[in-house]
Amino acid sequence: MANRRVFSGIQPTADSFHLGNYLGAVKQWVDLQETRDTIYCVVDMHAVTVPYDPELLRRRTRVAAAQLLAAGLDPERTILFVQSQVPEHAELNWVLGCLTGFGEASRMTQFKDKSAKGGADQASVGLFTYPILQAADILLYKTNEVPVGEDQRQHLELSRNLAQRFNHRFGETFVIPDAYILPAVAKITDLQDPTSKMSKSSSAPQGIIDLLDEPGVIRRKIARAVTDAEGSVRADDAAKPGVTNLLRIFAALSGQPVAILEATYAGSGYGTFKKDLAEVVVDAFAPIRERTAKYLAELDVLDAVLLDGARRARIVARETMSEVRDRCGFPAAS
Ligand code: ATP
Ligand code: LTN
Hints:
Blueprint: E1 5-10, H1 19-32, E2 37-42, H2 44-47, H3 54-71, E3 78-82, H4 88-97, H5 102-106, H6 109-118, H7 125-140, E4 145-147, H8 153-170, E5 178-180, H9 215-223, H10 241-254, H11 258-264, H12 269-297, H13 299-328
Parallel strand pairs: 1-2, 2-3, 4-5
Helix pairs in contact: 3-12, 4-7, 4-13, 7-8, 9-12, 10-12
The protein binds adenosine-5'-triphosphate and L-tryptophanamide (LTN).
């Protein structure tokens, strides 16, 4: 039997991914290469739903792809591509948009949060329909599982509903995708505000650890991470959100269970714990940072990998779109 198909996407909206992106998504992407048929995408069309600079987008799209390769995506085993290089995403977006209720789209909390920041009148229609394009990304590849962080659960639910609706109205076409969310790492929180998600658009720089941060910066940010006055290294989400977040990060990067870490650091205070954690993060991130720089020093090679990824993705996407066209009553395309 063929391996289950995994698809996920990430926006090129910052100069570096952060620790939340890495643990909540990218690390799973890399691990899933072992057992699944994996397709991953830098979703540049999602990045244009807010005001942006084209040159910066061009650069960040490459930086995003370079980090994904540096983190361990292997183009021999994975299809890695840039969304705008596969035009079928926009095509399916239209079809799915016509199946989405206005009220249904209005309930998406990410739109509510993001549009509230600049005032709803300033928000683009693209930001409003963003989750429909995400559903198109996923459904085009007949995806079984989508590795993402907790914040994407509602968008995944919309993708499932649209797939079911299309199948019901027009005939069995799409696979109903499942979210692949690992609870231990699904919501890494801000180091300065440990009850909020670590987020590139709303966290202050001190609250985020970037994948491309220098070791000295990583050490400083962890040393200053908010904890509590109790002084004991133990997990307790409600009473000790800061320490619990640090324990989760430590466990995910070192492979040691939280209970073992609690035992190791019982009675040692936060200083030693934070120092050791900083070394674990530095050891995980430094090689990725170095490899990212290497990929970015050979842009021709990087662009060729992405173009080949788009070519391979397009073979799958075209096949799905030709079924979709037929079911929708559109004439066959050339
Ligand atoms: P923004 O703040 O602009 O929404 P972001 O920092 O949340 O950006 P995205 O590009 O939206 O980052 O997310 C990429 C992937 O990383 C998604 O799968 C998302 O669920 C996951 N992710 C983002 N932040 C976290 C986090 N703090 N913990 C776990 N996963 C996260
Ligand atoms: N909306 C996601 C990015 C994204 C995505 C996708 C994730 C776009 N298309 C398809 C999984 C599958 C985000 O903001 N993190």
